[in-house]
Design goal:
It is found in: Cell membrane. GO terms for molecular function: ATP binding. With about 325 residues, the chain is of the alpha/beta class. The chain is built from eleven helices and 14 strands. The chain has helices at about 50-55, 75-85, 100-110, 115-125, 145-155, 175-190, 200-205, 225-230, 245-250, 280-290, 305-310, and strands at about 5-15, 20-35, 35-40, 65-70, 70, 85, 160-165, 190-195, 210-215, 215-220, 235-240, 260-265, 265-270, 295-300. Bound molecules: adenosine-5'-triphosphate.
Length: about 325
């Protein structure tokens, strides 16, 4: 493999829908390093699945280029496939055979002997907590177990890069945390992982670096902290009073560290530069000075959500 696990240059995919062009991916330049846990984050319809489809050779780019594991996705598609593992959004387990057999067949497909394939399958099933259900059909295990089995199957041939498309979209919160833990362990052991997600929290929890995409373009790319800093993400403090907050908002807007303050009925909303230590107490005092009693107060730390808001001027739609 070259130094970069993935490199795309001016990657485009244009579909035609109802006679009109849909620019699903609109000039994507990306680089993913070996060993990275990389996230493609964006709201529904942003172009994440189409990007993943092109990187995994399932979708042919309209123009531009992409190299995955050192191979061109169009000219060397077979080589790319040998070096990647893919976990799709939809369940693609063979429902007629057991989880173990699903994995074994994949190993055989990639040229392993029967013994080698069974050994590797059992090793993975044990590592992913599936040994006890190895003999079951996919229909007879939980959604989380089924997804974990798909990850195991994708790892059978020891791929350089593991791709996951919205891996936790349809599983319950506990199974989601469990899968996060396993993916973290895999990455810590050196596995390069690329996932798409529309969950801000998932990207924040797992990824070393993130590309925030919308309308087929990369809005920003970097570490979570770097994105928050460059997008000017703010701490948002809301203090709810028993009376209208207008007068308090006027005073609050002049306090140190406050970028802007607004009254929303009885709520005072203050956008502050992080860290906003001590500001909440000051805001409560301002309210008290105006004879307002506090009903509630909440501090929202800088997040990818506030960064997205600043980048696009729109709220993030999950
Ligand atoms: N086969 C297709 N034909 C026409 N338009 C398509 C096709 N596939 C996707 N699109 C459109 O391309 C855009 C990007 O879709 P894509 O599925 O890549 O986004 P996404 O970020 O993965 O969204 P989701 O999270 O909903 O899967 C959307 O506007 C979608 O409607």
């Amino acid at each position: 493999m070259t130094d970069a696990a993935i490199r795309t240059t001016g990657l485009h995919k244009t579909y035609t829908s109802g006679g009109r062009p849909v620019h699903a991916v609109d000039g994507l330049d990306l680089e993913v390093r070996q060993g990275e846990f990389f996230g493609l984050l964006g709201p529904n319809g942003a172009g994440k699945s189409t990007t993943l489809g092109m990187l995994t050779t399932r979708i042919v780019p309209t123009r531009g280029s992409a190299e995955v594991a050192g191979f061109d996705v169009t000219a060397q598609a077979v080589d790319v496939r040998r070096h990647i593992g893919v976990v799709t959004q939809a369940n693609t387990m063979d429902r007629a055979v057991s989880l173990l057999e699903n994995l074994e067949f994949r190993g055989r497909f990639f040229g392993m002997s029967t013994k080698e394939s069974r050994g590797r399958a059992m090793e993975l099933l044990e590592r992913f907590g599936l040994a006890e259900v190895a003999g079951r059909l996919d229909d007879h295990v939980s959604g989380g177990q089924s997804k974990r089995a798909m990850v195991c199957r994708a790892l059978m041939h020891r791929p350089d890069i593991l791709f996951l498309d919205e891996p936790t979209a349809a599983i319950d919160p506990q199974a989601r945390r469990n899968l996060w833990e396993l993916l973290r362990e895999l990455n810590a052991a050196g596995q390069t992982i690329v996932l798409t997600t529309h969950y801000l929290e998932e990207a924040e929890e797992l990824c070393d670096r993130i590309a925030v995409v919308d309308h087929g373009k990369v809005l920003t790319c970097g570490t979570v902290d770097g994105i928050k800093a460059s997008a000017g993400a703010e701490t948002v403090i809301t203090v709810s009073f028993d009376e209208p907050a207008d007068a308090a908002a006027q005073i609050a807007g002049k306090l140190d560290g406050v970028q802007r303050a607004e009254a929303d009925g009885r709520d005072l909303r203050v956008h502050a530069t992080a860290p906003a230590d001590g500001l909440l107490g000051e805001l409560i005092s301002v309210g008290r000075d105006h004879g307002l009693s506090v009903r509630n107060a909440a501090t929202l730390p800088p997040s990818l959500e506030t960064a997205f808001l600043n980048l696009t001027g729109r709220e993030y739609r999950e």
